[in-house]
Amino acid sequence: MHVERLLDQLTFEEQVALIQQLVWRLRQTAQSKQRCDLYGIWRDRFPADFDLDATLADIRHEWEREW
After folding, report:
1. Which long-range contacts does 28-33 make (Cβ < 8 Å, 24+ apart)?
2. Where are the domains of the chain?
């Protein structure tokens, strides 16, 4: 309600400018979050000789061994 009261003090043009600024900031935030480098996040989390393909194959075929 406090924000709404403050908005009521602005002119129509100021409200439009505020909305434009908010949209710009939201887009900037969304774009920066989308450009996350997954390699950088997971680097050094697994041993260098970790075989991802073999591990995924084991996980995918584990249910077959249980039968």
Report:
1. none
2. 2-66
